Structures are given as structure tokens and as C-alpha cells.
Backbone:
């Protein structure tokens, strides 16, 4: 839950900082001949509703594996869904977010020095990917040590080994106030390395998704051109749906308690709609071509791209594609490769409208 609080803090910071950073005189304003506030507002409200519903459905489909046997992580279809969603996330980073960051940080609205003298977009994306690796490694190490220490304390204080009878070991646990008879020892599933790994992955991935979701939401909400907003409604709806499937798959494998699952799923579903609502509120003073707005959006998009690309390649695709179950099943191996290409291809096509 500490990670969830970090996500909330990050989102609030983005909400507070972005509007103020965009209030400034722009040296290269462009006139938008298609401005129509009334018509644009209708499309924005439609975008809030459709993106909210699509995101919620997308993130909930893999989570429903708890109640729908066909969607459980041990089924083959789950690998197909995750590969497809990982392709979507990878394409989002390379095709949607990174180009936007390049466009912002190389804009003629910015001064030649230092923005035109150094490839800040690639640098920020690289640093973000390296930072994600470090957070990934340190968080996993921390949680493993924490769970190991807790398991050792529980084992020392709560488990009493009593004399066996009739060839069985009698185990008494204070935590459950019950008895269990059997020849096997008690195993703390919460300390499973794989489970800890999945929990770290799901939280770091949500952080990367939230950053760019808020930014694209604010950008859409601040626009007053129906011609610009109209294609974005459909594109972002599909975008959030498929991205939600990827995140939902990670959340499902992490086996969080129900409360944490609801918080993470709700948080993801609301980020873009809330971003749009904020964009609507600041549309009269927001200038997307102001230097401060371009720098802020460019840096955050580049950082988000680095996180998404790292997570898609290392934590989602590499982990599943090198899974012994996939490696020993030719049909499953071909299927996940096709799903990956399909997800990346479809999301790349959306760049035409987004």
C-alpha cells in the first residue's frame, strides 16, 4: 500500500504542477481556426465517459480470472492476453509517448540553448529506464528481505511443534488458532519470490502508465478544437482498454487483497478522465505551446516512455517468453508471439488518429 500512496502523491503533484507551468507567454503561438468551445466540450464529456468505461473493463478482464476459470494465470489464454497487452504497452512507449516527447523538447518555441543542443528526450528516457531498473531491483530485494524476516519471526513465535502421534506431525498456529495434521511443513506463500516480483512489477507499471495518462488527459481537456478531439476519443478509448488489460494481468498475478485490487484498478480507470476534467478547467489559461508547458510535458512523456519500454520488454515479455511452460510448448510459443505482434501492430495503427 506504500507504493499506492506514492502513486497518489505523484498524480497529485502532476495535477498541481502542470497547470502552473503552462501559464506563460508563448513566443510562437499558432491560431486554431477550428476552435469551438461548445462543440469541443461535448466531445470532452463523451471522452470522459468512454475512456472511463473502457479503462475499467480492460483492467478488470484479467482480474476476473479469480471467478472465471478460463482467465486464470495458469491457463494458456492468460499468456496470450498478457503478450497482446505487453505489445500495446511497448507500442505506447515507442510510437505514442516517445515521439510526443521529442516533438515537445525540440519545439522551435524553446530556446536553442540548451534544448536544441542536446538530445534531452533520449537522455531522460534512458535515465528513466535505468531508474526503473534500480527501483525494480531494490524494491524486490527489500520486500524479499522483509517477508523473510517476518516469516522467521512468525516461525519462532507462533509455531509450536508438539509431539507427533500415529506417525503425524501436530502443528499449532496462534495466527489461525487451529490445528493441522500432516507430514508437510507450514509454507508462507506471501514470501514467494515470484509473488513479490509480480507485486513490484504491477506497482511500478501503474506508476509509468499513470504519468502519461494524466498528461494526455490534460492535453485533450485543454484543447478547444473539435477536429483535434474527435479522433482522439476513439483512439484513447482503445488505448486505455488495451493498456488496462496489461496492467490488470500484472495485478491478477500479484494476488493482492481485494481492497488493494480495487484501489489500483480504480486509480488506473480514473487517471485519464480526471486529467481531461482538469484540462477543461484550465482550458482558458492553458497554452500548450508555452515553453514551460512544452518542457514539463516533454520531460514527463520521455520519463514515462522509458518506464513503459523497460517494463514491457523486461518485466512482461522477457519473463513470460522465457517461462519454461512457454519454452516447452511450441503452440503456446507461436501464439504469444502472434499476440505480441498483433497488440503492437494495432496500437501502432492508432497513432494515425492519435
Residues:
Amino acid at each position: 500500500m506504500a507504493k499506492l500512496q506514492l502513486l497518489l502523491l505523484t498524480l497529485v503533484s502532476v495535477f498541481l504542477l502542470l497547470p502552473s507551468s503552462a501559464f506563460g507567454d508563448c513566443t510562437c503561438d499558432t491560431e486554431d481556426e477550428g476552435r469551438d468551445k461548445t462543440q469541443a466540450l461535448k466531445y470532452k464529456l463523451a471522452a470522459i465517459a468512454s475512456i472511463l468505461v473502457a479503462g475499467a473493463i480492460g483492467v478488470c478482464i484479467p482480474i476476473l480470472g479469480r471467478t472465471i476459470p478460463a482467465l486464470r494465470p495458469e491457463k494458456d489464454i492468460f499468456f496470450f492476453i498478457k503478450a497482446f497487452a505487453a505489445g500495446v504497452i511497448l507500442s505506447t512507449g515507442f510510437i505514442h509517448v516517445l515521439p510526443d516527447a521529442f516533438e515537445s523538447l525540440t519545439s522551435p518555441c524553446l530556446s536553442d540553448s540548451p534544448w536544441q543542443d542536446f538530445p534531452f528526450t533520449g537522455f531522460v528516457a534512458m535515465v528513466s529506464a535505468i531508474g526503473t531498473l534500480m527501483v525494480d531491483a531494490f524494491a524486490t530485494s527489500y520486500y524479499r528481505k522483509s517477508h523473510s524476516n517476518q516469516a522467521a519471526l512468525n516461525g519462532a513465535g507462533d509455531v509450536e511443534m508438539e509431539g507427533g502421534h500415529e506417525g503425524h506431525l501436530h502443528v499449532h498456529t496462534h495466527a489461525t488458532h487451529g490445528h493441522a495434521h500432516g507430514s508437510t511443513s507450514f509454507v508462507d506463500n506471501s514470501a514467494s519470490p515470484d509473488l513479490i516480483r509480480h507485486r513490484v512489477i504491477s506497482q511500478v507499471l501503474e506508476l509509468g502508465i499513470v504519468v502519461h495518462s494524466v498528461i494526455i488527459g490534460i492535453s485533450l481537456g485543454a484543447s478547444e478544437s473539435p477536429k483535434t478531439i474527435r479522433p482522439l476519443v476513439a483512439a484513447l478509448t482503445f488505448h486505455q482498454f488495451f493498456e488496462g488489460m496489461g496492467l490488470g494481468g500484472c495485478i491478477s498475478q500479484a494476488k493482492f487483497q481485494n481492497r488493494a485490487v480495487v484501489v489500483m484498478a480504480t486509480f488506473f480507470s480514473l487517471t485519464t478522465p480526471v486529467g481531461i476534467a482538469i484540462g477543461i478547467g484550465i482550458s482558458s489559461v492553458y497554452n500548450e505551446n508555452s515553453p514551460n508547458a512544452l518542457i514539463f510535458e516533454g520531460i514527463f512523456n520521455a520519463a514515462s516512455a522509458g518506464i513503459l519500454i523497460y517494463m514491457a520488454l523486461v518485466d512482461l515479455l522477457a519473463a513470460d517468453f522465457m517461462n519454461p511452460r512457454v519454452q516447452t510448448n511450441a503452440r503456446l510459443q507461436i501464439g504469444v508471439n502472434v499476440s505480441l505482434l498483433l497488440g503492437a501492430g494495432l496500437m501502432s495503427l492508432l497513432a494515425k488518429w492519435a
In short: Confidence is low (pLDDT under 50) at residues 14-27, 159-191. Residues 120-157 form the longest helix (38 residues). The chain is about 70% helix and 5% strand. The radius of gyration is 23 Å.
